[in-house]
Every structure is written in C-alpha cells, then in structure tokens.
UniProtKB/TrEMBL annotation:
Domain of life: Bacteria
GO MF annotation terms: translation elongation factor activity
Source organism (scientific name): Sphingomonas hominis
Keyword Protein biosynthesis: yes
UniProt keywords, alphabetically: Elongation factor, Protein biosynthesis
The protein, known as: GreA/GreB family elongation factor
Entries under Pfam families matching the protein: GreA_GreB
Domain Transcription elongation factor GreA/GreB C-terminal: 82-151
Length: 151
C-alpha cells in the first residue's frame, strides 16, 4: 500500500484547539468584577484537580489561562463621581420611549439580562460622558436616548 493512503492517527484530522480570544482594549474591572475573576480561577483550579480525563483537563487549562491573563491585566477602576456617565456608573434612561437601567462594567462581568453591560458595547459607548437631562445620539437618531439619572 502506498504511504499516501496510510493514516497515522485520528488526531491529525481534528481541528486545532485555539486559545480563548481576549477582548480588545483595556481590561477595566469593578471590585465585583475582580472578585468574580478570582472565584472563576479558584473554581477552575478545583475542577482541574478533580478531573481525570485528559481532554477535559486540556479545556479546563485553556480556560484557566484565559482567566489568569484577565486577572494579570485587570485594572480596578472606581465609578466616576462627577455626574457624567463613566465606567462603573448605574444609568437610568429612556431609549425609544422605554425606561431602562444599566450599569457599565468590564467585558467579563457584563450580563445584559442582569442589567450590566460592557463599557465597550455600542450602547455604553453612546452613554459615556453624558449627564442627567441630556439627549444622546444612538443608532442613527440624534435624540434616541434621554439620560434620567447617573449614580
């Protein structure tokens, strides 16, 4: 049989396992976000210790490398307190006639369903720097957002 038709192993046909992508830009975190990173690292270390399957351990180690990098690059950032919207602030506003309330947080801490959005999200970028009473452009409309309160 020709060498061209011989298969050494099944592993050579698997897709490569890439590292988890890091969000671009600075890794700003709130105090809560930093605590969540620490909790995630501790949980992954425990899972690695308790897991015997090699493939599962490889995936867990990849996740752990991601979170260790996020911890190493984390910049604890306090909320802005000058009345303008910034990282860490809770904002009440109306968008398309609906009242909403969100807190601007780091990429890893964001949970839109829970009322937190990443500071890098388009909505957050539109809100940054605005103050209560201002109208803010968003999604092609100059007065799409009305800022009600900044905490």
């Amino acid at each position: 049989m020709s060498v061209a038709f011989r298969r050494e192993s099944d592993d050579e046909h698997l897709e490569p396992a890439f590292e988890l992508p890091l969000p671009p830009g600075p890794n700003l975190v709130t105090a809560r976000g930093h605590a969540l990173i620490e909790e995630r690292i501790a949980a992954l270390e425990q899972e690695i210790t308790a897991t015997a399957e090699a493939d599962a351990v490889k995936k867990l180690r990849r996740d752990l490398r991601y979170w260790l990098t996020r911890r190493a690059t984390a910049v604890k950032t306090p909320a802005r307190d000058d009345g303008a919207i910034g990282f860490g602030n809770r904002v009440r506003f109306t968008l398309s006639g609906k009242r909403r309330e969100v807190t601007l947080v780091g990429d890893d801490e964001a949970d839109p369903a829970g009322g937190t959005i990443a500071f890098s999200a388009p909505l957050a970028r539109a809100l940054l720097g605005a103050e209560a009473g201002e109208l803010v452009a968003f999604n092609g409309r100059e007065d799409a957002i009305e800022i009600l309160a900044v905490e």
